[in-house]
């Protein structure tokens, strides 16, 4: 068994904290994950950086975790910007076979890989310029790695992160793929913040195994997922703040459902209180994931308002 003291030592010593605490949010670094805007209409084949910038500005935050889905071209299922008019004679509906579904998913995945290899990081510097002009700071670049990634693909994503000016890649991944990320993190001097989630790095035991692989690894601590896995976020944060890159704020129940902030079992207020009382410069990144009645922009503002009032 690894002691709490040894567990804390797994974090890279001397990694600088990001910018100072913001007075606007009561001494908390309150930010936003652009994954929250996954419900925005997309134009197939294009990124939606301009729409993301507008949505983030409307939310009133200036620090974000940027999801790679926003920098990459939308897939064919994202829908047109303007829905086509209904046809008087619709085509008959036929349910695709499992083989057809699998083939379609593989084609989309291969097309994304081809785009990454062809484009590299050539567009990401211009994206950074847009965010800077809007007064929005990029804390982390979110990329979800799986076993389908080639080494060349992984290399390009780290180049993209550097072009975006971030020192942290937030990654949802399994332990097998995480092992492959270690040499790239060390080569580029980028911290990989592992996002805890079901089917990935999920439990404290998983954290120990993953963080031991590289001193560039830290934890992107999702307190909603941690609660749904029947662990205690407040106690973990108090004992292990040194290994946490940033905290993902969402509300889930012990049975796993995503809820509006304040209606689940996740101790959001208590976690924010620990950050404030201990003067921890750990960004609290809001992630809207429940099914709300409003637009993504409206629901995100509700989430942020709850955190600010907490």
Question: What does this protein structure show overall?
Answer:
The chain has 310 residues and is an alpha/beta fold. The protein has one domain (4-10, 23-77, 101-309): Divalent-metal-dependent TIM barrel enzymes (TIM Barrel, Alpha-Beta Barrel). Helix content is 40%, strand content 15%. It has 12 helices and 10 strands. The protein has an 8-stranded parallel beta barrel with strand order 1-2-3-4-5-6-7-10, surrounded by 5 helices. Strand 8 (251-252) and strand 9 form a beta hairpin. The protein is globular, with a radius of gyration of 20 Å. The relative contact order is 0.15. The model is unreliable at 1-24 (pLDDT under 50).
Key phrases:
alpha/beta; single chain; disordered N terminus; 10 strands; TIM Barrel; 12 helices; two-stranded antiparallel ribbon; globular; about 300 residues
Give the name of the CATH architecture.
Alpha-Beta Barrel
Find the CATH topology. TIM Barrel
Work out the count of structural domains: 1
Average pLDDT number? 89
CATH class: Alpha Beta
**SSE string:** HEHEHHHEHEHEHEHHEEEHEH
Low-confidence blocks of residues = 1-24
Q: Which strands sit side by side, in order, in the main sheet?
A: 1-2-3-4-5-6-7-10
The count of DSSP E runs of length 2 or more, i.e. the number of strands, is: 10
Percent in helix? 40-55%
Looking at CATH, the homologous superfamily is Divalent-metal-dependent TIM barrel enzymes
């Amino acid at each position: 068994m690894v002691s709490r003291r040894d567990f804390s030592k797994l974090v890279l010593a001397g990694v600088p904290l990001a910018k100072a605490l913001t007075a606007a949010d009561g001494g908390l670094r309150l930010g936003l994950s652009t994954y929250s805007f996954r419900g925005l209409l997309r134009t197939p084949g294009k990124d939606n950086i301009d729409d993301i910038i507008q949505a983030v500005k409307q939310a009133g935050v200036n620090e974000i975790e940027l999801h790679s889905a926003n920098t990459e071209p939308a897939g064919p299922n994202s829908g047109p910007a303007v829905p086509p008019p209904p046809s008087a004679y619709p085509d008959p509906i036929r349910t695709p076979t499992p083989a057809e579904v699998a083939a379609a998913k593989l084609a989309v995945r291969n097309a994304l890989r081809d785009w990454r290899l062809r484009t590299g990081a050539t567009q990401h510097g211009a994206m950074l310029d847009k965010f800077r002009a809007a007064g929005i700071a990029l804390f982390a670049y979110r990329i979800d790695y799986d076993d389908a990634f080639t080494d060349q693909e992984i290399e390009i994503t780290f180049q993209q992160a550097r072009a975006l000016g971030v020192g942290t890649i937030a990654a949802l991944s399994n332990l097998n793929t995480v092992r492959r990320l270690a040499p790239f993190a060390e080569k580029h001097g980028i911290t990989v913040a592992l996002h805890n989630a079901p089917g990935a790095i999920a439990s404290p035991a998983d954290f120990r195994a993953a963080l031991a692989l590289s001193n560039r690894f830290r934890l992107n601590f999702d307190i909603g997922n941690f609660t749904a896995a029947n662990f205690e976020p407040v106690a973990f944060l108090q004992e292990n703040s040194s290994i946490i890159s940033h905290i993902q704020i969402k509300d889930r129940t012990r049975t796993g459902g995503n809820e509006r902030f304040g209606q689940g079992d996740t101790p959001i207020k208590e976690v924010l209180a620990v950050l404030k009382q201990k003067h921890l410069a750990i960004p609290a990144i809001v992630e809207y994931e429940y099914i709300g009645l409003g637009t993504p922009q409206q629901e995100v503002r509700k989430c942020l308002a709850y955190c600010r009032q907490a």
